[in-house]
Amino acid sequence: MLNNITDCEGGEGGTNSQGDGNPKESSPFINSSSSDVEKSQQYDGKNMALFEEEMDTSPMVSSLLSSLANYSNLTQGSKEHEEAENNEEARKKTVQAPRMGTVMGVYLPCLQNILGVILFLRMTWLVGVGGVLGTFIIVFMCCSTTMLTAISMSAIATNGVVPAGGSYYMISRSLGPEFGGAVGICFYLGTTFAGAMYILGCIEILLIYIVPQAAIFQIEGLEGPEAEAGMLNNMRVYGTIVLSFMALVVFVGVKYVNKLALVFLACVILSILAVYAGVIKTAFDPPDFPICMLGNRTLLSKGLDICAKTIERGNATVTTKLWKLFCDSEFLNATCDEYFTNNNLTQVQGIPGVTSGILAENLFGFYMEKNDILEKRGVPAVADPDVPPTNSNRYVLADITSFFTLLVGIYFPSVTGIMAGSNRSGDLQDAQKSIPIGTILAISTTSMIYMSSVILFGACVDGVVLRDKFGEGVNGNLVIGTLAWPSPWVIVFGSFFSTCGAGLQSLTGAPRLLQAIARDGIIPFLRVFGHGKANGEPTWALLLTASICEIGIIIASLDAVAPILSMFFLMCYMFVNLACALQTLLRTPNWRPRFKFYHWALSFLGMSLCLSLMFICSWYYAIVAMGIAGCIYKYIEFCGAEKEWGDGIRGISLSAARYALMRLEEGPPHTKNWRPQIMVLVGLDAEQNVEQPRLLSLTNQLKAGKGLTIVGACVEGTYLNNHAQAQKGEQALRKLMETEKVKGFSQVVISSRLRDATSHLIQAGGLGGLRHNTVLVSFPKNWKQAEDNQRLRNFIEVVRETTTASLALIVPKNISAYPSNGERFTEGHIDVWWIVHDGGMLMLLPFLLRQHKVWRKCKMRIFTVAQMDDNSIQMKKDVMTFLYHLRLDAEVEVVEMNDSDITAYTYEKTLVMEQRSQILKEMHLTKNEREREIQSITDVSRGSIRRKNPSNLHPQKSITEEPAGGSVEEKSEEESFRLSRPRQVQLIQGKNATPTPTSPTSPASLSVGAMTPGEEMQMTWSDETEKGNNPSVVHPETARDIFNMKPEWENLNQSNVRRMHHAQKLNEVIVKKSQEAKLVLLNMPGPPKNRTNETKPLENAVYKVYPFFADIQVMIFIGFGCLLAFFRRYGFGGMAFNFLMATFAIQWAILIQGFFQFYDNGKIHLGVINLINAEFVCAVVLISFGAVLGKTSPVQLLVMALLEVPVFAVAEWIVVKYLKINDAGGSILVHLFACYFGLGTTFILYRPSLNEGHSKECTSYHSDMLSLLGTLFLWVFWPSFNCALTLRGDDQHRAILHTFIGLSASTITAFALSAMLSKNGKLSMADVQNVTLAGGVTVGASVDMMISPAAAYILGVLGCTACMLGYKYLSPFLAQKLRIQDQCGIHNLHGLTGLIATIAGICAILLASEETYGPSLYQTFPYRAPQDGDPRLAELQKLIPGLEAGLGRTAQEQALYQLAALGTAIAIAAVGGMLTGLVLKLPYLASPTDESCFDDELFFNVPLEYHQVQELQDAGCSETQVKQVLAN
Q1: Residues 6 or more apart from 1030 whose CB is under 8 A from it?
Q2: Are 1082 and 917 contacting, i.e. CB atoms less than 8 angstroms apart?
Q3: Tens of pLDDT along 712-766?
Q4: pLDDT confidence of 994, banded at 50, 70, 90?
Q5: Is residue 575 within 8 Å of 214, Cβ to Cβ?
Q6: Rounded to an integer, what distance in angstroms lies between the CA atom of residue 1009 and that of residue 1005?
Q7: Are strands 297-298 and 1004-1006 parallel, antiparallel or unpaired?
Q8: Prior bond to 1036 cis, omega within 30?
Q9: What does the alpha-carbon distance between residue 1402 and residue 1221 come to, in Å, rounded to a whole number?
Q10: What is the per-residue burial (b if ≥16 Cβ within 10 Å, else e) of 432-471?
Q11: What is the pTM of this model?
Q12: Which residues have a Cβ under 8 Å from the Cβ of 538 and sit 6 or more positions away?
C-alpha cells in the first residue's frame, strides 16, 4: 500500500485520532491550521473520511488540479516567486494577467538584439576579406548554431511550466547548480562584454563618420602605430563617458530604456530597409562613388582634389595635390616615387550595381596582413617585388591581419541575442507557445537578412570598397552607407541609435541576470549583488557590470572584444544543447517536451557546432572561457550552497555511477590499482556529536580525497523511535566531514545493539564493486575499566569480523593526540616495523601519509626483526632491494631478537593462567557458576602455585584465548608495583603508551595480509591434542630448569610461553628504537579464530595482589590503631586519630605517588597495586605519629600527614630512581625514614614539663589488652608486609620464611629479656607489645636474599635485644639530654632495628655471588646484571630468558649505594621532620596545653565512667578502690 496504516483499523480513528503523533506538514492545498472540527465539517458528506488524516500531506486530486489550472508567473526575474510557491498567502493573491504576445514579447526583442553593430560596421568588410562564399559559410554556420540552440531552448520551454526569470532559470534548472552557475556567469559576462562592444561601435560611428573633429587625441598627420594609438585612446575616453551615461540612465530607471526600445528598434528596421532600397536602386541607377587607384593600389581620398598626376590649365601642365604627395616638389622635373612614376592613375566605380557582374570578382576571399595596401584584382601594375613600398601612408592600409577564424569570431556576436524573448518569460501570455515560435521566427528572419546581405554586398560593391573597413577610399563614408538610399546618413544615424539602444539593453539585462544568480545563493561571494534598491533594481550588480564593461572599453578595439563575448555566448549555447541531449539520451522521467520538431541529434549537433566555433574563433580564448567556467563549477561544488532543482545532471551522475559500478563488478582490481577504500567507524555521544573527530583528520591525510570513504556511526534503539537521532548524527557527520575536507559518504545505522549496528555497517557498506576494503577504528579508551567492558568486546568483534571479511584493519591508538590537518611536521620519522609481510599495506600507508602536507617532511624508516639464526646483513640488503623495486626511499635497520628470551614472569604467568583454565574445565561449570566460584578458585591459586596431579585432570576439548597484549600490560602493572615505578612505554596495547612531546602516539596497524604469523600468536592456551604433540607436556622432566630453581614450570607448554612473551619483547625493542618517531606503524596478528572463550574474572591481576592489600589493611587500621591505644585516658585518640590519619594519608599518597611514579598522559593510573604503595606511605605516617602521640591536635596531625607524604615521595623518588637499592621489606625507606621524621618533629615540639612524666601518661588493664591485640594483628600479617614488594616466586617465598623466623626469634627473646631486666622478674606489657615485633624490621632489608634461616633468627634476636635496651636506657637519655620526647619509642622499634637491617642487607649483598645464587643472582639484585651490550648478558639470557640488562654494579658498589640511601633517607627525614615541627608550632593549629595532653576529653565526648574515674582519683582513692567502685 502507498499510504501508511494508521491506528484507526478498529474503529478508533476519526477526527480526534492522533495518528502516529508526528506533526503534519504544511500543505499547499489545504489549510493545515484548521481545527479538527473544521476538517470534519469540510469533508462531511464528501466520502473522504477514509483519507481525512492524510489530507494535510496528500491532497485531494481535485485540489491538485485546481492549483495547477490557476498557476501563474510573477514578473520577470523575480526569484522570490519560487520561494513563495509554498507560501499560502502569496498563492491566494490574484496575479495580473500577462500582457505580451509572441510578436511583442519574443519576436521583436530577439530581432532588435540580433541585428546590431556588426551588420552595420563589419559586414561589408567581412564580405570583402572573406569573399562571398567564405562569408556565406560563416553566416550559415553561426545561424545554424543559433537555430539549433533555439530548437533546444524551445524543448526546454515546452517541458512543463517555464519559470519566471528567463534563460538563466531555464538553463540552471535543467543543468543543476554547478553547471547552471557556470553557464549563468558565462551568459552574464557575454552580455556585459556585448554592452562594451555596442558602446565601442557607437563611439566608432561617432568619431569616424559623424563628428571626427570631436576626437580628443588628434590623429591628423600621424602615421602607423601613433595614429592607431590615438584612435584607441579616443575610443577609451569617449567609451568611458558613454558607459557612465548609460549606467546612470539604467540606475535612474529602466522605464526610460523600455520607452526608447521601440525607437531603437525602428532605427534598426529603417536602416535595413534603406540598405535593401539602395540595392534595388543600384540595378538601374548606381550611386557615384569613384575610387582613385594608382596601378592596382587604392589611394586615400582624403586630401585629393582630382584623381590625376597633372592637369591642363590654359596652355600649361600643372601638377595636382596627388603629385605633391609622391614627389619631392611640384615641378614636372621633380623626383617622384618609383611606383608613382611607373603606374597610371585610374578611377574605379565603388558601387557598380547589382547587375554589374562584380559578384564574380568578390566570390573568393582576399586575406591580408596588417599594413598591407588594398589592391584591386585584375588591374595591371608595375612594381619591383624586391623593393618595399614607399609612401604607404598615401594608400588605404589593412588595420589588422585577417584570416578565416578571426572573421568567425568577429561575426558571431551578430547572431547572439536569441534569448531576449526567453528572458521575458515572466511577461508572456503563453510562454510555452511564444518562446519557440517567436525565437525561431526571429532567427529565420535575421538569418535571411544576413545571408542576403552577404550576396547583395558582394554583387553591388567593388572588392576594394568592401575591404576598406573605415571607408577611407570613399571620402570617409560608412561603406554600407554608400549603398543606402536615400542617403548614407540614414545608415549612419540608424546604426548609431541602434548601437546605443543595444548597449542600454545589455546594461539593463546583465545586472538583473547577476542579481538572479546572486539570489540563488549558489555562489557565496556574489550574494552581496543580490541586494538592490527598494524597488528591486540591482544597484550593486549594475556597478559590477559597469566595471566589467569598462574592461572591454579599455581594450578599445571592436575586433578584439567581439571574439571574447563570442566565447561566452558559445559556452552558454553549448550547455543548453548539452542539457537537452543528455536528458533525452538518459531518458530523464520529467523530460517530456511538447515541441514536436525537437530531436536529441539536433541538440548534439548544436553542441558540436558551438564547441567547434569556440576553437575556430580563438583556441586560447576558448581555453580561457572553459577554464573560467570550470573554476566557477568547482567553486560552486566545493563552496556553494546545496541546491536540488531536479536537474538532468543528476541523471547523468546516476547513469555514469551505474555504468562504473557495473564495470567494477567484472573482476577484482589489479594489485597496481589497489588503494585503501576506507570505512571509518566513529562513535556518537549523547548529543549525537562525533567522539573522535581526529579519525577524520587521519582519513583525510590517508586519502586526500581519492577513492572511497564511508564514515559510519551507530545509534542504539529502534528505527521508529530513534530516526530523528540518526538524522542528527548524520548531519553531525557531514558537518565534520566538510570541516575536515573528507570527500565521501556518511551513514548512520540504527539497531537494538551497537554490536549488531557495527556489524551491519561492515557487511553492507558500499554498493556493488565499490566497497570498502579497509576499516579504520580507534583503539578503545579506558578499555580496562569495567564500565567500558562492552566497548572492548565490541572492538574485539570488529577485529574478528574484518578478519573474516578479508578486510584490512587500521587501529590508531590515542587518536586524540594525532595531528590535525593544519599542523605541519618540519622533521621527524615515520617508523614502520615490518614484522610479517601483509601484501604491502604497511609500506603503502606511510607513502600515502607523506603525500599530505602534515607528514610530507617526515622521513621513512623500516625496521625488520631478525632471529638469531638469520643473516642480518643479507636481510638488510634484501629489504633495500625490495624498497628499490617499490620505488620507496627509506632507511633500513634490522633488529635482532633472541627467540629464547623468556623471563621468569612469563613462565609464572602462563602457569597461573593454565592452572585456572584447567580448574574451570574440570569443574564443568556454566558461565554464571564460574563467576560464583571465582573466590574459591582464587584461594586455590593463591594457596599453591604448583599444579595438583595433572594426571587426574580430564579437561574438555576447548581453547581459551587471550591476546598477548594483555599479558604485557599485566606485567607492566606488576613490575611497577615491585619497583615502585612504571615500566617502559607499551606501544602495542600497553596502557602506558605515551606520546612524545613532539609527536602523536604511535598507532597499531592490524593487517590481515599475513595470516600465518597471526595464527602462530592466536592461541594462548592449548588443548589435549596440542599437549599430546608437545613433549614438554607429556614428559615434564624434559622442560625443567637446569638450576631446578622453579620446579613448577615443568608442566608448561613452551609454545604458549613464547607467545605470551613475544609481545613484551617487541614492545621493549620498539620503545627503544622508535622513541623519537612521529608515527610508528606495525603489524598485529589476526584475532583468535575460536570465539568460545569468555573473559575470565580470574585473569584480573587483583587476585594476585588483593591478598596482600587485605593483610596490610588489617595492619594499618586494626594493628596500628589498637597498638596506639595503650594510654588509659587516650584510647579514643590513639585509635580514632590513627583511623583519620590513615584514610587521609592513603588518599594523599595516591595523588603524590601517582604524580611522581604513575603519572601518564595527564592521568594518574589507579589500581590495587597503587593502593598498596599508598598504604606503605601511610605506614610511614603512622609510625611518625607514634613520636607525638597524645601531644598534638587532630589538625596538627593532618598537617603533619599533609607535609610528610610529599617529603617521603621525594626521598623515595631519589632512592628508587637514582640510587636503585635493594630494600624489599622497607627497612630504609619505611622504618628509618618514619622514625627520624617523627623524631625531628617531636624535637621541635619539645615540652619541658613532660620530661618528668605526666599524670595521665599511664596505662590500664583494658588499654594494655587492646594494645596487645594490635601487636598480635601486626605480628600475624607482618610477612605480607615484607613480601608484598618482592619478586614473585622464590624471592617472595624466602621473604615469608625469613620474616616469620625473625618475628618468632624476637618474640621469644622479648619474653626472656623482659623477665630478666625486670626487678621483680615479671613481664612488662610494654615489652610484649613492642619488642616482639622487632624481628620483622631487622630482616626487612635482606628478607628476599639467601641469608639462611639461621641468619634470620640471629637478626630477630639482635633486633629484639637492641629494641629492649633502647626502651630501658636510650629513650630516657634522648628525652633528658637531646630534647627528643619519643612517646611510643619508635626509635627503638624502627630506628635501631632499621639500622641493624641495613647493615645486614649490606653484608648479604657483599656475600652474594653466583656460586650461591646461580644466574638468579641478577634477578634478586637486578642492578648488578651486566649492562646492555655486554656479552655476559647474552650468556645469562640464554640461562634465564627475559633477563633484563642492569647497571653492571659490583657487590661493593651496590653496598655503597645502600649506605648512600641510608644517609639520604635519614637526612631528608630529619630535616623534613624538623620543618614540619616548625609548621605544627603555629598558634592557630589548636595545639593542646601540657595539662590537656594524653586526654580524650579535649577532643571527644567521653562516657560517664570516664569522669567517675577522674573524680575518684582526685579524691585520693587508690587504683584498687577505683576498680571496685567501677565493678559495683
Answers
A1: 1022, 1053, 1054, 1055
A2: no
A3: 999 989 988 988 888 998 899 989 988 888 888 889 999 988 888 888 888 888 8
A4: very low
A5: no
A6: 11
A7: unpaired
A8: no
A9: 10
A10: bbbbbbbbbbbbeebbebbeebbbbbbbbbbbbbbbbbbb
A11: 0.52
A12: 511, 512, 514, 515, 529, 530, 532
Q: Which amino acid belongs to residue 211?
A: V
| Strands 345-349 and 316-319, sheet pairing | unpaired
Please count the other Cβ atoms lying within 10 Å of the Cβ belonging to residue 1504.
7
For helices 404-411 and 123-157, angle between their N-to-C axes, nearest 10 degrees? 60
For residue 496, give the C-alpha cell.
548609431
Write the CA distances from 595 to 434, 486, 1286, integer angstroms.
Answer: 12, 44, 96
E strand or H helix at 1434, and its extent? helix 1431-1439
Q: Which three cell numbers stand for residue 399?
A: 588595420
Residue type for 743, please?
K
Helix (H, G, I), strand (E, B) or coil at 1426: coil
Determine the length of the chain. Answer: 1528
Is-contact 524 195, C-beta < 8 A?
no
Q: How far apart are CA 424 and CA 29, in angstroms?
A: 29
Q: Which residues pair with 746 in a beta bridge?
A: 711
Residue 805 neighbours by CB under 8 Å, 6+ apart: 762, 763
Is residue 784 within 8 Å of residue 986, measured between CB atoms?
Answer: no
E strand intervals along 299-421:
310-313, 316-319, 345-349
**Residue found by looking up cell 547548480 in the block:** 177
DSSP-derived 3-state class of residue 860: strand
The alpha helices in 924-960, defined as continuous H runs, are 927-932, 934-943
210 DSSP 8-state letter: I
Distances 175 to 417, 574, 583, 608, 651 between C-alpha atoms, Å = 21, 12, 9, 18, 10
CA distance 863 to 895: 7
Place of cell 570631436: 214
Q: For residue 1468, give the H/E element and its range.
A: helix 1451-1480
Spatial separation of the C-alpha atoms in residues 967 and 972, rounded to whole Å: 9
> pLDDT, tens digit, for every residue of 839-889?
777 888 888 888 888 998 899 998 888 876 677 888 888 888 888 887 888
**Distance of alpha carbon 1349 from alpha carbon 1385, whole angstroms:** 28
C-alpha dihedral sign at 1442, 1445, 1450, 1455: negative
Of 537, 530, 532, 533, nearest in space to 508 by CA: 537
Q: How far apart are CA 1369 and CA 170, in angstroms?
A: 112
Question: What amino acid occupies position 1287?
Answer: L
pLDDT, tens digit (0-9, with 9 covering 90-100), for 581-634: 888 887 777 788 888 888 989 999 999 999 999 998 888 888 888 888 888 888
H-helix segments, 383-487: 404-411, 431-460, 463-467, 479-483
Select from 1343, 1342, 1451 the least CA-distant residue to 1401. 1342
C-alpha cell at 1348: 639462611
- The count of C-alpha atoms lying within 13 angstroms of the C-alpha of 513, restricted to the half-sphere facing its C-beta, is 31
Q: Determine the residue type at 635.
A: Y
Q: Which cell numbers in the block locate residue 302? A: 582624403
Cell of 1382: 619519643
808 membership: H or E segment, kind and range: strand 808-811
SS3 state at 603: helix
CA separation for the pair 175, 183 (Å, rounded): 9
Tell which residue, 362, 410, 432, 395, has the closest CA to residue 129.
362
CA 867, 1446, 1435, 907 torsion-angle sign: negative
Q: What are phi and psi of 1360, to 5 degrees?
A: -65, -45
SS3 547: helix
Buried b (16+ CB within 10 A) or exposed e, 952-981: eeebeeebbebbbbbbbbbbbbbbbbbbbb
User: What grid cell was written down for 762?
Assistant: 561492515
- 833, three cell numbers: 616495523
Q: How far is Cα 1170 from Cα 976, in angstroms, rounded to an integer?
A: 9
DSSP string, 214-276: G-SS--TT--THHHHHHHHHHHHHHHHHHHHHHHHHHHH-HHHHHHHHHHHHHHHHHHHHHHH
